[in-house]
Design brief:
The chain has twelve helices and 20 strands. It is of the alpha+beta class and 446 residues long. The strands form five sheets. The chain has an eight-stranded antiparallel barrel with strand order 13-14-15-16-17-18-19-20. A six-stranded antiparallel sheet has the order 2-1-12-11-10-9, with helices on both faces. Strands 3-4 form a two-stranded antiparallel sheet.
Length: 446
C-alpha cells in the first residue's frame, strides 16, 4: 500500500509539473490571442539572460500568396533606426572625430541659430528644429533639399529649452555622419554595426529589396479588408527611419550592446540618460515593474515595430508588425508582465453589436468605484449616440457593446471590459471594470 501511494503521489506531482506552462508558452498564447483578435500580425523574439524563450512568426507575410510570417521575415523597423544612428554618432565621439558639443554651424555654416544647436540637441530632440514630416507638400530628395527647406522654417523653441520629436534631427545626424566619417551613412552603419554583429539580414533600401523573406506591409488589415501600404523611397526616412531587419538580427543588436561590442559602457549610459520627456539618444527611458526599461517604437506606412530592453536583467523583447495599426507597446508590457509574474490578460476577438439608445441610456450615471489605490468616481454619459466612461484625470473611453450589458473600451492601450449589473429592483446599480486579469467594482450613486 505504501508503495502504491508513493507511485500515485509521484505521478500526481509529475502531472502538476507537466501541466505548468513555461514563460515561452505563456507568451505564445498571449501573442496568438492578439493575432486572433486582429491586434498583431508579424514576428516576435523574447530572450532573457542569453536564452531565447520565443522566436516565432504570426499571421500573414503576404496575404495574396498565403505566405506566413516566420523568424526570417524582413520588416521595415522605421524609427528604431534612430538608436543605430545615435550609436554611430557616439562611436565617432569615441574615435575623437566628433564632439557632442559641436554646433550645427560647424557642418552647415549660416544655419539660422545653428551656433546654439549642438549634436546633443539633435540626439535628444531638444534642437527646436521642426519635423519635416509635418509638411504635407514636402519630402526631402537629398541633403540639399532638406537643408534648404529647414533653413526657411523658424525653430519651434530656443534650443535646449523644450522637447519635440523631430525626424529632421536624425536626418541631419545621418548627413553629419557622412561628413565626419567620409563614407555614406549606410556604409557607416554596416562598418560599425552590421558587419561586426553579423546582421546579415538588415539593410536600407526596402523598396528595391528582392527577397522572398520580404514582408508586405498593410495600412489596413482586417477580416474584410486588406490594403497594402505605400513603400517609400529610403531617401525620405533616411537616418531617422530607413532600416529594415529581422527579429533575429535585432537580437544580435541587443547582445552587441549588452557586451559593449559597438560602443563602450560610458557611451551607452549617455544614450540611456533622459534630459527632457524621458528621451535619451535614440531611446525612450521609463520604468516598468520597478525596473528601468529602455525602448523605441517605429511606424511607417504598412509597418509598426517596438523594441524594449531591461538591460540590468538582460531581458529583450522585439515585435515587428507588417500592419500599420499601433498598440505594440501594450503587447510589450503584457509580455514583460509574463516575465515578471505580473497580472495580464489574453485578448479575445471582439464582436461589437449595436444597441438602441434606450438601452444605452440605462447605464448613464455616476459610480463610486473601489480600487487598490483608493475610491474614485466614474461617470458614464451618453453623447452623440455613444456611451462614454470617464474618471477624473483619466482618458475618456467609448464603450462598445458586445452584449446588452457588457462592453469593451476603445482605448488601444488597455484591454478593458465593463459590465453593468442590475439589482433586484430591475435597475442598474453596479459597474464592474476588468483589466489585465483584475477586476474592480463600484455602486451607482446617481
Amino acid at each position: 500500500m505504501k508503495r502504491i501511494l508513493t507511485i500515485i503521489l509521484t505521478l500526481s506531482f509529475s502531472s502538476v509539473l507537466f501541466s505548468q506552462e513555461s514563460e515561452g508558452e505563456k507568451i505564445d498564447k498571449l501573442l496568438t490571442g492578439y493575432t486572433d483578435a486582429g491586434r498583431f500580425n508579424g514576428s516576435a523574439l523574447i530572450a532573457v539572460n542569453d536564452k531565447i524563450l520565443l522566436e516565432k512568426g504570426y499571421g500573414y507575410k503576404n496575404f495574396r500568396d498565403n505566405s506566413l510570417n516566420d523568424t526570417s521575415t524582413i520588416f521595415q523597423i522605421a524609427s528604431i533606426t534612430k538608436q543605430f544612428t545615435a550609436s554611430i554618432i557616439l562611436k565617432l565621439v569615441e574615435l575623437k572625430k566628433l564632439s557632442l558639443t559641436d554646433n550645427l554651424c560647424k557642418f552647415y555654416p549660416g544655419y539660422p541659430k545653428g551656433e546654439n544647436i549642438t549634436i546633443q540637441n539633435l540626439l535628444n530632440h531638444t534642437s527646436g528644429i521642426i519635423d519635416w514630416t509635418r509638411s504635407i507638400n514636402f519630402s526631402p530628395k537629398n541633403e540639399k533639399s532638406l537643408i534648404d527647406f529647414l533653413m526657411t522654417k523658424p525653430l519651434d523653441f530656443p534650443p535646449g529649452t523644450s522637447w519635440s520629436y523631430s525626424n529632421s534631427n536624425y536626418s541631419l545626424l545621418g548627413y553629419i555622419i557622412q561628413k565626419v566619417s567620409g563614407i555614406s551613412y549606410e556604409n557607416a552603419v554596416r562598418k560599425y554595426i552590421f558587419i561586426p554583429l553579423q546582421m546579415r539580414h538588415s539593410g536600407f533600401d526596402f523598396k528595391n529589396l528582392k527577397s522572398k523573406e520580404k514582408a508586405t506591409g498593410y495600412s489596413v488589415f482586417s477580416d474584410s479588408t486588406k490594403i497594402e501600404g505605400v513603400v517609400y523611397d529610403s531617401v525620405g526616412p533616411f537616418a531617422a527611419g530607413e532600416i529594415y531587419s529581422t527579429v533575429g538580427d535585432l537580437y544580435k543588436w541587443h547582445k552587441g550592446l549588452q557586451s559593449h561590442k559597438i560602443i563602450n559602457m560610458a557611451s551607452q549610459e549617455l544614450a540611456y540618460t533622459p534630459l527632457i520627456n524621458n528621451y535619451g539618444f535614440g531611446w525612450i527611458i521609463d520604468s516598468l515593474f520597478s525596473r528601468r526599461i529602455i525602448s523605441h517604437s517605429g511606424n511607417i506606412s504598412g509597418f509598426n515595430s517596438n523594441l524594449a530592453r531591461i538591460i540590468e536583467d538582460n531581458t529583450f523583447v522585439v515585435l515587428l508588425n507588417n500592419k500599420e495599426e499601433s498598440g505594440l507597446e501594450t503587447i510589450t508590457k503584457n509580455i514583460f508582465a509574463v516575465l515578471y509574474d505580473q497580472p495580464y490578460s489574453i485578448p479575445v476577438k471582439r464582436n461589437p453589436i449595436k444597441l438602441d439608445e434606450e438601452i444605452l441610456r440605462k447605464y448613464v450615471g455616476l459610480y463610486e468605484v473601489k480600487s487598490p489605490h483608493g475610491p474614485f468616481l466614474g461617470e458614464v454619459s451618453f453623447r452623440k449616440g455613444k456611451l462614454i466612461l470617464e474618471s477624473h484625470g483619466g482618458p475618456k473611453l467609448e464603450l462598445i457593446a458586445e452584449k446588452e450589458n457588457c462592453f469593451f473600451d476603445s482605448y488601444e492601450d488597455t484591454e478593458g471590459e465593463v459590465e453593468f449589473l442590475t439589482g433586484s429592483n430591475g435597475l442598474v446599480d453596479k459597474i464592474v471594470i476588468s483589466q489585465n486579469g483584475t477586476s474592480i467594482s463600484g455602486k451607482r450613486i446617481r
